[in-house]
Amino acid sequence: MTTGYPTDEPPPETVDAVVIGGGAAGLNGALMLARSRRSVIVVDGGTPRNAPADGVHGLLGLEGIAPAELLSIGRENVTRYGGRIMAGEVTSAVPAASPAGSDPRFTVTLAGGGVLRTRRILVATGLRDQLPDVPGLARHWGHGVVHCPYCHGWEVRDEPIGILAVGPASVHHALLFRQLTDDLVYFTRGTGLDEDTRARFAARGVRVVDTPVAGVESDEKGITGVRLADGRIVPRRVIAVATTMLARTDGVTGLALPMADLPKGMGRHFVTGPAGSTSVPGVWVAGNATDLSAQVGGAAAAGALAGAHINADLVTADTDAALAGARPGTAAA
Questions:
Q1: Which residues form the FAD/NAD(P)-binding domain (predicted)?
Q2: Which residues of 124-157 are buried (b: 16+ CB within 10 A; e: fewer)?
Q3: What is the DSSP letter of 159?
Q4: What's the pLDDT tens digit per position in 69-88?
Q5: Are 77 and 31 in contact (CB under 8 A)?
Q6: Model confidence over 182-231: pLDDT tens digits?
Q7: What's the N-to-C CA distance of the chain in angstroms?
């Protein structure tokens, strides 16, 4: 795998934590652990969700920074405190035999055959966006095709925008983008609209097109319009669409983490408790893998909180082991 940065080798010893995913959540979780003098390894597959985007927005102090630059800074932050970064894919993560007491162990296997042994796992795999199957749409993802008014809205302000409806969530989506442009067209794509919603759209100057969509037209400069089934083309420069957001589960199914579906087919995510804790002792989840709508700042904050709680859990286990070793006739785990 080519990620463009140096990678560490798997250590032979059991480490305190393995972070699966090198995005904002994973790196910030690793940073908290490294600064707590924990041995931590981040396994980074090098395919962040926001890679096609020109910049990260809504992140105080780093507004507009390129996604790749932000992650490069994050990796430097982690390694500065002794954390290690490994470029690669996790093929499996499973519980392993644990010592006496409540100090779990896990085995993490990498695509190249390497094996990591760890006491705790932070799953920060992120999500993948599933676009509707409209010809010509996917090639413009992250540029002329956007999904988040807070991530991309300012950059597409005042452009002719089309909303490709995927379900009830698209109604709210349309009203959010109407804040950013006076030229908005809503393509129902068979999802249907009640009269009240049509009246609300009309009041805000949103044009509704019920004719089925056949594809997205473009030229060398980007999107030019939406082609309808009857052959007409509605000129547009930007397409906004609510994607189906699916937590990435590759490599972590062996942990048997609980998952849940969002309503109306909007997505699927890992179920977590406070600070990203899960029903599997020793495993936390942070970022878009559990909070599908979190922006970069929110994902990073969740990673930091999970990292702090992992360290606290390890402190308890270390103290329990020390206490057991101090008692006559016992040995530390």
A1: 16-300
A2: bbbbbbebeebebbeebbbbbbbbbbebbbebbe
A3: S
A4: 999 999 999 999 999 999 99
A5: yes
A6: 999 999 999 989 999 999 999 999 999 999 999 999 999 999 999 999 99
A7: 37
Give the distance from CA 133 to its chain's centroid: 22
- For residues 23 and 80, what is the distance between their CA atoms, to the nearest angstrom? 17
Whether pTM exceeds 0.85: yes
**Element counts in the chain: helices (H) and strands (E):** 6, 19
Q: Residue written as tokens 């779990």?
A: 104
Whole-number Å distance between alpha carbons of 170 and 187: 10
Sorted by where each starts, the structural domains of the chain and their CATH numbers stand as 15-128+244-326 (3.50.50.60), 132-240 (3.50.50.60)
Specify the pLDDT at position 22.
96
| Cα–Cα distance measured from residue 104 to residue 314, given in angstroms and rounded to the nearest whole number | 10
Q: Which two tokens stand for residue 326?
A: 């101090």
Question: Taking a C-beta distance cutoff of 8 angstroms, is the pair 14, 105 a contact?
Answer: yes
Q: How many CB atoms lie within 10 A of CB 116?
A: 22
* Token pair recorded at residue 114: 């390497």
∠ CA 161-130-251 to the nearest 5 degrees?
150
Burial degree of 46 (CB within 10 A; 0-12, 13-18, 19+)? middle
